[in-house]
Amino acid sequence: MRNAWTGYAWAVGAAVAATLAGLAMRGRFDLVNIAMVYLLAVVLVALYQSRGSAIAASVLCVAAFDVLFVPPEGTFTVHDAQYVLTFAIMLGVGLIISRLVERVRRQARAQALLEIEAETERIRSALLASISHDLRTPLAVMAGASSTLVESERMPPEARQALAHSVFSQSRDLSERVSKLLQMTRLDTGAIRVERDWTSMVDVADSAVRRLSERLAAHRLIVDIPGDLPLVRVDAALIEQALGNLLENAAKHTPAGTIVRLRAKADGQRLVLSVEDHGGDAADVDLERMFRKFQHGSMEGTAGGVGLGLAICRAIVRLHGGDCWAERTPGGGMTFRISLPLERSPEIPTESPSATADGPATDDPRR
Question: pTM higher than 0.70, yes or no?
Answer without folding.
Answer: no
